[in-house]
Design a protein that fits this description.
With 297 residues, the chain is α/β, with parallel strands linked by helices. It has 2 domains: 1-47; 50-293, Purple Acid Phosphatase, chain A, domain 2 (4-Layer Sandwich). Helix content is 33%, strand content 23%. It has helices at 2-44, 85-97, 114-125, 140-145, 147-156, 191-197, 214-219; strands spanning 50-58, 69-73, 102-106, 133-137, 160-161, 165-171, 174-180, 203-207, 225-228, 256-260, 263-267, 285-293. The chain has a 6-stranded mixed sheet, with helices on one face. α2 (85-97) packs parallel to α3.
Length: 297
C-alpha cells in the first residue's frame, strides 16, 4: 500500500506543478494579448482609414449623372487628441485623391467646446476640392454644444449646409437632388419642409445624421439613397454579432449598406470617436460612391 501512496503523491505533485505552469502560461498569454489589443484599439486602428468603394444603381438617376462620384465622411469629432487639425488635413488629402464630384458630411463635427476647434475645422475642411460642392448636415453633438459656431465654421470652409434644405445639381435639363434633414435626436428634423422644396424630377438622396430615420424617409417613396453616420459602427465590434454599444437612433442600421423598402441606406463608420476613444474592428471610414443609371428605367 505504501508504494502506491508514494506513487500517487508523486503524480499529484507533478500534475500540480504542470497545472501551475500551464495556468501561468495562460495568464501570461492573456495579459500579452490584452496589452496588444488595447494598444491596437487605442493607437493603431483609430488612425487606419478605410476607403470603402461602393457602386450604387439609383432608379431615378438621369444618364447625365452616370458615374457621379460622392465621397462621404461623418463624425469628425475634432479635438486635440486624436482628431487634430493635422490628422483631419491628411484625411482631406485622401478625400481629394478620390477626385469626388461631391463631398457629403453627415454631422458631428465636434464633441465639445466648438469655440476651441471651429477655426481648425474651417481651415482643414476648406481644403476639400470636389468638382461640384461639399454639402453637410449637423449632428446631435453639434446641437448639444453650439450649432451656431459650427455653422459659421463650415460656411467659412465653403460648405453648403443642408439643414432641412434641398440642393440641386443641374446638367442640361437633368437634375440630381441632394436634401438634408437636421438632427433627429435634437428634434430639429423637418422632413415636411424638405419634401415641399424637393423637385418632382430627378434622383434624390438624403443626408441625415441618424441612420434609423431611414424608416421614415423611405416611407415617402421619394428618396433613392440615405447617407448617415452617428453610430461609429459601434466603435468596438466583435465578429458575428452586432456592436455591443449603439446610440439611440443608430441601433437598427448601425453600419454599412441596407435595403429599406425601395431606398438604400448607407451608414458610414465615421472618422472620430467618443469616449472611450478606442476602435476595434470598426476602422474610420471614407466612403466613395459611384452612381450608375438603372438600365431598365
Amino acid at each position: 500500500m505504501k508504494p502506491f501512496l508514494k506513487f500517487y503523491r508523486t503524480i499529484r505533485r507533478t500534475l500540480a506543478k504542470l497545472t501551475l505552469r500551464v495556468f501561468g502560461k495562460i495568464i501570461f498569454l492573456v495579459t500579452v494579448l490584452g496589452i496588444c489589443s488595447l494598444t491596437y484599439a487605442y493607437k493603431i486602428e483609430p488612425g487606419w482609414i478605410d476607403i470603402s468603394r461602393v457602386e450604387l444603381t439609383l432608379p431615378h438617376l438621369a444618364p447625365e449623372f452616370q458615374g457621379l462620384r460622392i465621397a462621404q465622411i461623418s463624425d469628425i469629432h475634432i479635438d486635440d487628441n486624436p482628431m487634430t487639425q493635422e490628422r483631419l488635413e491628411k484625411i482631406v488629402q485622401l478625400i481629394n485623391q478620390q477626385k469626388p464630384d461631391l463631398v457629403a458630411i453627415t454631422g458631428d463635427f465636434v464633441s465639445w467646446k466648438p469655440e476651441l476647434f471651429a477655426h481648425k475645422l474651417a481651415i482643414a475642411l476648406g481644403k476639400l476640392k470636389p468638382k461640384e460642392a461639399t454639402v453637410a448636415v449637423l449632428g446631435n453633438h453639434d446641437h448639444w454644444t453650439n450649432p451656431t459656431i459650427i455653422q459659421q465654421a463650415i460656411a467659412q470652409a465653403g460648405i453648403i449646409e443642408l439643414s432641412n434644405v434641398v440642393y440641386t445639381l443641374q446638367r442640361g435639363s437633368a437634375q440630381f437632388n441632394i436634401a438634408g434633414v437636421d438632427d433627429l435626436w435634437a428634434g430639429k428634423n423637418r422632413l415636411d419642409l424638405v419634401l415641399e422644396q424637393l423637385p418632382q424630377e430627378g434622383a434624390a438622396i438624403l443626408l441625415v445624421h441618424e441612420p434609423d430615420f431611414a424608416d421614415t424617409s423611405s416611407a415617402t417613396g421619394r428618396f433613392d439613397l440615405q447617407l448617415s453616420g452617428h453610430s461609429h459602427g459601434g466603435q468596438v465590434k466583435f465578429p458575428l454579432i452586432k456592436p455591443p454599444v449603439l446610440p439611440p437612433y443608430g441601433k437598427k442600421y448601425p453600419v454599412g449598406r441596407y435595403q429599406v423598402g425601395e431606398m438604400i441606406q448607407y451608414t458610414n463608420r465615421g472618422l472620430g470617436m467618443v469616449k472611450p476613444k478606442v476602435r476595434f474592428n470598426s476602422r474610420p471610414e471614407i466612403t466613395v460612391f459611384t452612381l450608375d443609371v438603372n438600365s431598365n428605367s
